[in-house]
Amino acid sequence: MTKLTPGQLKLLALLAGPIVALLIYLINPFSVGPLALKVLAVGGLMITWWISEALPMPVVALLPLILFPLLKINSLENTAAPYANPVIFLFMGGFMLGLAIEKWNLHRRIALSIVRTTGTSGDRIVLGFILATGLLSMWLSNTATTMMMFPIALSVIHVMKENHKGEGNMAHFSLAIMLAIAYASNIGGIATIIGTPPNVAYVNYIDKKYHYTPGFMNWMAMCMPLSILLLFSLYWVMVKWLFPNRIKSDVATRKMIRTEMRKLGPLSTAESRVLIIFAGTAFLWIFRDLINRIQSAVKLDDTIIAIMCAVALFICPSGKKAAPDIGPDAEEEGSNVSAILQWKDTSKMAWGILLLFGGGISLANSLEKAGLIEQLGHWLAQFAGNGFLLVLIVTLVSLFISEIMSNVAQVIVFAPVVSSLADALHMNPLLLGIPMTLAASCAGMLPMGTPPNAIVFASGYIKLPQMAKAGFVMNIVAVILITLFSWFLLPLLMPR
Questions:
Q1: CA 29, CA 25: separation in Å to the nearest integer?
Q2: Residue 68 contacts residue 43 (beta carbons within 8 Å)
Q3: CA 211, 216, 220, 221 torsion: positive or negative?
Q4: Mean model confidence pLDDT for the chain
Q5: What's 477's DSSP letter?
Q6: Which residue in 190, 200, 235 sits closest to 474, CA to CA?
Q7: CA 53 to CA 56: how far, in whole Å?
Q8: pLDDT (tens digit, 9 = 90+) per residue, 36-87?
Q9: How far is the C-alpha of 368 from the C-alpha of 205, rounded, in Å?
């Protein structure tokens, strides 16, 4: 049998999108009206191209700007508006903070310090990376966190292999540490509003619909206990059940950690200033509601705080002289001291995620306008007789759909469904909305499930069946824990 070339596979993937869209339009599987049918067909095209990676995901996210006006689904002005949603600027600020932390090696210092504290046996190194990754992901995007931890993990694996004396299972160790980074980035992010895109998208939605937001501190109080429980469950699944490595503590690894810490030296001026801005930003996010209550001169918002942080990074000097630069991105002549961030640093930023956000919101708005969200709500309503079963179904559907669909777009699409359902049943909308949102960040079976999955899959240490197996187990663990947490503990923690 002749194997298809990459070019042929891409052509098939490109053709699959229009074919799926055409089939949806001709068959009308859900018996919807003309407008809803056109939106559904465009959604089928976008999802097919997202899953097959026929085109980069951000490029697919631009399709509404072309197709919605041409097919008279929505005007260009209304279609384009979501691409400038405030939540996009919140993420931009978070990405820039992540760039500064990475540029000045603060992430490396944090990670090495935690690994040095946890110990150097195989199990303890995995635990150290889980804790370091989970902690960073609470404050930075899960994608940025994974990209920061990824090179550190590779260096630790390299040193462990060099000093490996034959005991234990190095393949399991390498696999567990890579999967642990991806999954801990996703799980750690659920603890704070800004830790993962679905959280921001959901809080943005309920703020618009109910003129209410849980606030940074309330969200942490509700979701951090679950995040910590999931992180320790991840450790147990990775090293005690699926991939035991049995590598004992090693002198060479301890020496490597100490050597790396010595190479970093004392906290540099630039690192100190990044740390101050980071701490100041976290302080404002955490105490924003309190600050707004005790004064009326200014009203702080998470997005405003994030952009303030980003601007501060470009204003604050790093304490180091700017290197001479040539070309269109060169700094202006006469600038002797470089700022913490320079504009050329943003070339490394995940601009595509911002476009993906905009496309997801635009698609979701049209799905809601066409009445498709309401129909999905009717289907879920059949489980309304049993509240616990309803929470379980919402969590299960949300998690497994996020394996193949952008979790941001998914939350934007599902938030109106579960909120309307909760309103109809006279339930607090958070009781369905929070499990739906948290579950969307826990996909682990497929590389396209979340950006962290894709990053670690590219390492070469993970085969697809291994990721699918580990991801399925963690998915089931997440569904069980999120459902139990949401049904029994969330009502006690929710603001009344």
A1: 9
A2: no
A3: negative
A4: 82
A5: H
A6: 235
A7: 6
A8: 889 889 988 988 887 777 888 789 889 999 999 999 888 999 899 888 877 7
A9: 13
In this structure, what token pair is assigned to residue 73?
């689904």
| pLDDT, mean of residues 366-389 | 73
Instruction: Give every CB contact of residue 339 below 8 A, 6+ residues apart in sequence.
Output: 313, 314, 315, 316, 317, 318
Residue 480 amino acid letter: I
Helix 464-484 and helix 216-235: axis angle, to 10°?
Answer: 130
- Taking every pair of Cα atoms in the chain, the longest distance, rounded to a whole number of angstroms, is 73
Report the distance separating Cα 141 and Cα 349, nearest Å: 12
Yes or no: say if 168 and 112 are a contact pair by the CB < 8 Å rule.
no
Residue pair 133/145 in contact by the 8 Å Cβ criterion: yes
- Span 163-215, pLDDT tens digits: 666 677 888 988 999 999 999 999 998 998 878 888 888 988 888 888 777 77
Q: SS3 helix, strand, coil % of the chain, rounded to 5?
A: 75, 0, 25
Phi-psi region of 217 (alpha: psi -120 to 50; beta: other; left: phi over 0): alpha
Return the residue matching tokens 């029994």. Answer: 488
Q: In a 3-state reduction of DSSP, which class is residue 432?
A: helix
8 Å CB contact between 303 and 93? yes
pLDDT confidence tier of residue 374, bands split at 50, 70 and 90: low
* Both tokens assigned to 201: 């998208």
DSSP-assigned letter for residue 31? -
Residue 406: φ, ψ to 5°: -50, 125
Which residue is it, tokens 């109910």? 210
The answer to whether 318 and 274 are in contact (CB under 8 A) is no
Lowest mean pLDDT among 151-165, 209-223, 461-475: 151-165
Contact 153, 178 (CB under 8 A): yes
> Count of residues for the chain?
496
CA 165 – CA 411 distance, rounded (Å) = 48
The number of angstroms, rounded, from the C-alpha of 153 to the middle of its chain's C-alpha atoms is: 19
Mean pLDDT score, 227-242: 93
Quick check: helix, strand or coil at residue 320?
strand
Question: What number of other Cβ atoms are within 10 A of residue 347's Cβ?
Answer: 9
Residues 320, 321, 327, 329, CA torsion sign:
positive
